[in-house]
UniProtKB/TrEMBL annotation:
CDD domains for this protein: Slt35-like
GO molecular function terms listed in the Swiss-Prot or TrEMBL record: peptidoglycan lytic transglycosylase activity
GO biological process: peptidoglycan catabolic process
Name under which the protein is recorded: Transglycosylase SLT domain-containing protein
Lineage: Bacteria, Bacillati, Actinomycetota, Actinomycetes, Mycobacteriales
One Pfam family recorded for the sequence: SLT_2
Length: 246
């Protein structure tokens, strides 16, 4: 049930709270003085209130809202429901975060075309099939080398990793932040509801207040340590807020 998921989401943040000062200090020297213009991007169309304890797939509550904006934004209805719901849950569970659905949609577009990359199919329940996997992060071809401390946990026999799912989580990050958002009693990296809410939790933890330029860019650099990536997400989020995708 969602109650368990929400508690787990908050517990993850609480457990990590002991390292908050260390993380804050380590981020400060990496950030430097430069923050690109247009950060944070606008929040976009207001998301209607939702019942975060609803039975079934809670994101379905936003169907009317998502359907009204989907065609103009060129975002699948199911994906837009997931982004809007994740932003609403974050508002309830972490009101100081101020994450907007437009930021989640920008990440979803850059990472996987909202769960449709390479002709993947996004189902009404949020499942993405076939699963989307990134390139092997083994240090070749310009990639970072990232070692999975527990490869068997995600069904892999290799200690090198691939980013997974519509929001492209690294396995270890998913194990810490992955939550069940659609009440099917499992946290599935290949479900866009679960992935969007997990991304919101991760971004809120790393950025603290995404309504501030420093908070937003800190969160995006934690998600993907690349200026180009952050600018791409900013541009897509800004376009979605304006109602005119790039």
């Amino acid at each position: 049930m969602f109650e368990v998921s929400a508690v787990r989401w908050l517990r993850t943040l609480a457990v990590l709270g002991a390292t908050a000062l260390l993380l804050a200090s380590s981020c400060s020297w990496q950030l430097g003085p430069f923050i690109p213009k247009g950060v944070p991007p606008p929040p976009g169309a207001a998301v209607p209130p939702v019942d975060t304890h609803a039975k079934g797939r809670p994101a379905d509550q936003l169907h009317e809202w998502a359907a009204a904006h989907s065609a103009a934004l060129k975002i699948p209805v199911t994906a837009l429901e997931a982004y809007g719901y994740a932003a609403r849950v974050a508002e309830v569970e972490n009101p100081n975060c101020h994450i907007a659905w437009t930021t989640l949609a920008g990440i979803g577009q850059v990472e996987s075309h909202h769960g449709t990359y390479h002709h993947a199919i996004l189902s009404p329940n949020g499942d993405v099939r076939p699963p989307i996997r990134g390139v092997v992060l083994d240090g070749t071809n310009g990639t970072m080398r990232i070692i999975d401390s527990d490869p068997g946990a995600m069904g892999s026999e290799s200690d090198t990793v691939r980013a997974m799912g519509p929001m492209q989580f690294i396995p270890e990050t998913w194990r810490e932040y992955g939550v069940d958002a659609n009440n099917d009693n499992k946290a599935d990296v290949d479900n866009i509801d679960d992935a969007a809410l997990s991304a919101a939790g991760y971004l809120c933890w790393r950025g603290k207040d995404l309504a501030t330029p420093r908070g937003w860019i800190t969160a995006l650099w934690a998600y993907n340590d690349s200026d180009e990536y952050a600018r791409a997400v900013r541009d897509w989020a800004t376009a979605y807020a304006a109602g005119h995708p790039l």
